[in-house]
Design brief:
heterodimer, A: mainly alpha, two-stranded antiparallel ribbon, 4 strands, globular, B: about 400 residues, alpha/beta, Rossmann fold, 2 domains, eight-stranded mixed beta sheet, six-stranded mixed beta sheet
Chain lengths: ~300, ~400
């Protein structure tokens, strides 16, 4: 019966990893191409979830609500870039961190004013049960949907970045911004577009995760930290790195929560194991990051 | 509406400040936002209901209720408590839902000799060695529901039970309480992060362990998410879910719905408890807020009644803290839980009931009382309390 457990935990890790990838992809592009630390990326995830909650309620359809929330968040993201963040590109990282941290506080309070501190976003009833994937292997239908969407978006992004003209400009910007500028790339429009794509990916993650978790003010901060861990592990500016990093973080976190307490129980007395297991599990991904930084300081797939 | 009420009371207070103890000031700090807000909101609403039914008074004095949100953060809670105790000089402090936030905040009240009446959190340290003369519990000791659940699991002769709780003081108290009365084997004992919302990894482990029953202590939003995901994973058909009373009460029933049918839980109070005070409370709460009260609401209501009785018994002399303490200790009021008394550590001695989630005559999901698990149960720590 252990293969069922391993299969189920792998799917859990994959699901979590793919959602982290959606957040990390936008973050790594903004960081890699514009050399801009955007702490407010998590706020776009929150905005996406709140917009989805309202739009699902307004349209009465989960699909329509989520599909409308994605472009709406992208527009908000681009507005944010044009009005505020554009002025920060020339500043040093400290100013960017301070300014975007202020944005987190402002957006949190703005959302509280508009929606209140939380909003309901129920799971579609048809997806709320389990599916039998293989004999004996049950998995929640909604989590399967998340995995499917995550894989589709990852494939789309890969094709978009590696096969299209815009994707080429993005890659050029990530590997050498000055050279791309010198070759006459309209960097302003490119930056705004990249920001919009990042915001749209945030909205996909926020809207999909909301029925499983909760739509609430401050939901972006915790996951933002994980997204930064992902891009540091994967290598800044690299979509491939973000994907690998996100999957590794998702797996390590799931495995840590599931198996570390058991592993500790095997060779420690129970009172230590029950204290050490959860504590180590909750820092396992940071330990992983420390190891990666020690072995490959540029991350697994450095862009430049 | 609430603000206007407070303003009115404030204005009333300003007119008559010349006399001593012309009003009673109560500071209320609780978790009023985020996924676990329903708990604090129920306590607050019931507390305000009790004042309203009393004609805006507590113990014959006009009541002023100052409300603040701790945002589920110990530092924010402590700040609010500090302001209320030192600046607003409240006569009573109350409100906290979560033990960790309360433990960070109540020392401010204790240092200032301000009485804290707990409408919920009642952790083990304050029941035993660190029992405090300014700490009163109107709810139940942290372990109590879990001890009753453990006794129920023993009565049902479950062979193996899987335990899950968040990794903090109340989580540890809860599972210790369950194990104190459960005689079968423990399939596994898992501590998750406080505030965790995704339980996929934990649920996969539960499925693999195949226990007879699963006991969870996951208050507020954690429980809502866990139970939804438990049902979504298809585990509810093969594993009996046991919860403490608050994890399958009205605040959880509303978002989770029919998935909870048939869940057994344990509590010191139930909607259908047959006493006059409870009937009045349930009817008034439903009329005022258009929803059924949860066990948290019952605790908030009892907290207000307990303060009301104490202020009445000292004839409004709230500045005489020693007299107020004696009156609180006597707890002379008709509680919605039926008769109870306070132990020498100022924690209650009371009955605990087995309840099941079922449909009532109107088709609503409610908890029905199935029987009494403990009669006049105190707590396991009172022997260590040096107070007389």
């Amino acid at each position: 019966m252990t293969w069922i457990l391993i299969a189920e935990q792998s799917l859990n890790g994959l699901q979590f990893g793919l959602m982290l990838f959606l957040l990390a992809a936008g973050l790594t592009l903004v960081f890699g191409i514009m050399d801009m630390i955007n702490l407010a990326h998590g706020s776009l995830y929150m905005l996406g979830a709140f917009l989805a909650a309202s739009l699902v309620q307004a349209t009465g359809s989960f699909l329509a609500g989520v599909l409308l929330a994605i472009p709406a968040t992208a527009v908000l993201g681009m507005l944010l870039e044009v009005l505020v963040l554009r002025n920060l590109y020339q500043r040093d990282h400290l100013s960017q961190v301070l300014a975007t941290f202020a944005l987190i506080l402002i957006l949190n309070e703005a959302v509280r004013l508009v929606w209140g501190s939380d909003a309901p976003l129920p799971m579609p009833a048809s997806l709320s049960g389990p599916v039998e994937l293989l004999p004996g292997l049950f998995y929640p239908a909604y989590r399967l949907l998340i995995i499917a969407v995550g894989l589709a978006v990852a494939a789309f992004l890969f094709l978009f970045i590696s096969k299209t003209r815009i994707g080429m400009l993005v890659r050029a910007g990530a590997s050498n911004r000055e050279m791309a500028l010198a070759m006459g790339v309209n960097i302003r429009v490119l930056f705004t577009a990249v920001f919009g794509v990042g915001a749209a990916l945030c909205a996909v993650a926020g809207a999909l995760l909301a029925p499983l978790l909760a739509v609430q003010v401050g939901m972006g901060e915790n996951i933002l930290i994980l997204a930064f861990v992902v891009i540091v592990i994967g290598g800044i500016g690299s979509i491939r790195g973000a994907l690998v990093g996100a999957l590794v973080v998702g797996m390590v976190d799931t495995i840590g929560r599931a198996f570390l307490p058991i592993a500790f129980g095997a060779f420690l007395p129970p009172q230590f194991a029950s204290a050490a297991g959860p504590a180590i599990a909750s820092v396992s991904i940071y330990l992983l990051m420390a190891v990666v930084l020690f072995v490959k300081p540029q991350g697994l797939f450095p862009a430049r | 509406m609430k603000n206007r009420f407070v303003l009115f009371i404030l204005a009333l207070g300003l007119c008559v400040t010349a006399q001593a103890a012309s009003k009673v000031k109560v500071g209320f700090v609780s978790t009023l936002s985020g996924p676990s807000a329903a708990l604090g909101v129920d306590i607050r609403d019931a507390f305000q209901l009790a004042i309203k039914l009393n004609g805006g008074k507590l113990g014959g004095l006009p009541a002023e209720l100052l409300v603040a949100d701790d945002q589920f953060k110990p530092d924010v809670g402590r700040q609010a408590a500090e302001k209320m105790v030192k600046l607003d000089k409240v006569d009573f402090l109350t409100g906290f839902v979560f033990s960790n936030i309360m433990l960070a905040s109540v020392p401010v009240a204790f240092e200032n000799k301000t009485i804290y009446v707990s409408p919920n959190a009642a952790p083990s340290p304050l029941a035993g060695k660190q029992c405090n003369p300014y700490f009163f519990v109107a709810s139940w000791p942290n372990d109590a529901y879990h001890e009753a659940a453990g006794q129920h699991a023993t009565n049902k002769s479950y062979r193996s039970v899987y335990l899950i709780a968040p990794n903090y003081q109340a989580g540890k108290d809860s599972l210790a309480g369950f194990k104190r009365f459960y005689k079968g084997s423990i399939a596994n004992e898992v501590y998750t992060q406080l505030g965790q919302l995704d339980y996929s990894a934990e649920l996969a482990q539960v499925r693999a362990a195949k226990p007879d029953a699963l006991y969870i202590f996951l208050p507020g939003g954690m429980g809502i998410n866990f139970i939804k995901q438990f049902v979504g994973a298809g585990l509810s058909s093969s594993i009996q879910l046991l919860t403490p009373g608050f994890s399958s009460d009205q605040d959880i029933i509303r978002p989770v719905g029919d998935a909870l049918l048939g869940t057994f839980d344990t509590a010191h109070w139930a909607l259908d408890l047959d006493n006059a005070a409870n009937k009045k409370f349930v009817a008034a709460f439903e009329k005022e807020y258009k929803r059924l009260p949860s066990v948290f609401a019952a605790q908030g209501y009892d907290t207000a009644l307990m303060i009301d009785a104490a202020v009445r018994d000292v004839k409004g002399k709230v500045e005489d803290t020693e007299a107020v303490r004696k009156a609180l200790r006597a707890a002379r009021f008709q509680s919605v839980r039926g008769p109870f008394k306070l132990n020498r550590n100022q924690y209650p001695i009371q009955n605990y009931y087995l309840r099941v989630v079922a449909k009532d005559s109107q088709g609503r999901l409610v908890n029905k009382t199935m029987g009494t698990i403990f009669k006049d149960r105190g707590d396991a720590y009172v022997e260590e309390c040096p107070m007389k």
